[in-house]
Each structure stands twice: as C-alpha cells, then as structure tokens.
Amino acid sequence: MSPSKSKDRPNIGESKHPLVQSPKVQLELDRRIFNLKTLYDVSKDLFSSTDSADIIRNFLLMVMGNFGVAKGVIMYLGDGRPEAAQISAVGLPSETIVGLRSCLQQVFAHDRGPTNGRESSDGAILDPDCVPLAIIFPFSIDNRVAGALGLGPKLTDARYNDNDRELISTLVNNLSIALKNARSVEEIKNLNQDLEAKNVQLEQALRELKASLRKVEILESIKSNLCKFVPTAVMRLMEKSSEGEIQKADKRDISILFLDIEGYVRITEQLGATEVNTLTRRYFSVFMDAIYQNNGDVVETAGDGLMVLFMADDPARHALEAVQAATMIRQKTQIINEESKLEREPVMINMGVSSGSALVGASKFDSYTGGRWTYAAHGMTTNVAARLCDRARGGEILVSRDTARRTRGAFAYRRVGPVKLKNLSEEVEVFAL
Question: The domain that contains 85 carries what CATH number?
C-alpha cells in the first residue's frame, strides 16, 4: 500500500470517541431544554399575577408537577414577622401544616434547630427534620430571608440531585423577583389609595374653604355697607374685641368738633327741602375728606350739623387734629361758596371745638320694644363744644381754653374772653380762630 493511501484512511479509534459521548451530550441537551421549558412556563405564570397568594400557590403547584412531588409547602413572610407568615400547602393535612409552621420558622432564625440537616452549597437544606419534607429552599428579597419552599419526596423515590437543585434554585430566585414585584405593586396600590383618600380630604377641605370664603365675602360686603352707617371708632372697637362686642363707655381724653349750617331753617324755607338736601350733601361730602384726613370720626349727624370725635392717644395731637379739620372745613366752604356765588348767597358753617375728659363709648337704651345701642361722648367737654358751635356766627371757629392751650404753637387765636354759655353755670374762656 502506498504511503499516500495510508495517510487518507480514517482512524477508527479517533472516530469512536465522539460516538461514545453523543448519548451524554443528548442527555445534557435534553436536560437543559427541560430546564428552560420549565423555567419559561413557571416564569410566565409567575409574572402574570401581582397577587402574592396567587403567585405562591401557582408556583408551588408547577414546581411539584415538574418534579413529580405529592407534598409541598411555601411559607412566606409578608410583613417580615414569622408569626404572621402565610402558608400555602398541597397534599398536607392541617395538623401537619401546624407542625411545619413551627419547624419552618426555624429557617428564619440564626439557630435552625430542628431543621438541621445537610446544607448544600446552593443554600438548600437536605434531609431536614421537618416531616414529611425532603428538601427546603430558603429564599430572600432584598438580601433578607423572606420565605422557604419545602418539597416532600419524589413519587419515584429518587433523590434531589445537583441538576434538580440547580433548577429549583433558579425557579426560587424567580419567585423572589415575582414576590418583590407584587410587594411593590401592593405598596403602589396602597399609596394610590392613600392619595385618593387625601384627595377626598383635600376636596372636602377646599369645599369648606370655599364656603368659608363665601361667608367672609358676605361679611365683608355687610361690613362695607355698614361702614356708611357705623362710626369708624365702633368698627375699630369691634375688630379689637375677640368676640366682636362693643365695650361700654369709659372716660378718656378727647377733642370734640361740632359744626352746623348757619340759618338752616331760613335756607330751607327759601330753597325747599330737596334743594337743601342737595346743598347739604355737597358741603358735607367735602367736609368728610377733611375729617378723615385728620383721623376724625363722625358719631352723630343732624340735618344741618355733625358731631365729630378726635381720639388720638396723645392729648395734644387729637386737639391739633380737631382744629386742623375745622380750618380745612372753613377753607373748603369758602371754595364752594366762591363757585356758587352767582346762584345763591354764601353758606356759613359755624364750628365749636373743645378738648378734655369725656365718657366715650357705647350706651344702651332699653324699652319694651327692645334695646338700642348708641355710640357717643358725654360730659362737660361735649356740652362746651356744642355751646361754642351755637355761639359762633358768620363761619366762626370757637375753641375752648384747653384746646387753645394744647395747640397755641400751631394756630393764632384771638381771645374772646370769659363767656356765659347756654345751660352752663360757669363762664367759659373762649378763643376764636
């Protein structure tokens, strides 16, 4: 035989080795295909639900079916407390489950106690002392022991080999992921429920706030309308009071300004009530600016006159404000008179100012028809201011001695002298501005 033909002949020994190995390769290939199919089926079922009880029950049934096991159990620590763990069991009577609960709780303790068996490298406990279990697989969630899978003997009486444990370990890892997802979904659901409850509370709070704001709007509307009739001092007192009550009258140092239209009855006879009312509104409207600019408060009105209180805490200041208001009123009167000189004769506004102690505040008058509250100042200071106004002529401003003394640096007064005023027993020192 030629050397070339000898080189081309196949070596029988070399070709024989792959043939011998092919059944093992096929067996390994079948095992891997089985594992992948099992893993796929179990995983598909695991991740189709977000209810932990359904996940555990379905997982246990599928694992037992794939490995030919008639008895199995899963203990899951839902909230982390072994005594509150939920148990899902198949093929076990209730009395056995009670015993297994106590036995499996040792898995979660540092000392495994009665579960002591051979622990494999993959974490499985082989031949545990938990009848009728043949193997236990603890599983963790977020690096904390969360539960354990226990399987009874196979129906074939074959032991759980390395390949079985590898597949079960992979499946249990998927169980851990599925339970973690279920826990996250439950937490999100609880957060959504809390959020919905808080939204309901917020909506209720908003409704109550809107109702309260509406009440405030109504009260503000009432207040703005009452401002036209209620003295500013009364409103300030009510705002300061925690219960909105008006304090009763007490003594305090104030200045009082009285003013009236000279010859009001005669003017009414000449012009008529309607025309006089228009005239009075025109004059008194500009007077109000002068009064409020000087912190005055109109407490009484009549057809031809006003009573104004000045109640700053400083006696010199409220006296100064009262006299300033009077001078501004006289100036405004002169302006209106100049504008209307072709229509009628000038209107004269007479004024009296007095400073001193007075009883200021609310007074109640009771009768069989009910009570009525008034707010005013009473006493000698009030009487003097009213009588000075009565005595003034031709648009005069007459002030009491106390008012002149407190404001002598700001205004030039002419001494009128001691004057006997109506219904006052003693003469009063009077000054004209």
Answer: 3.30.450.40
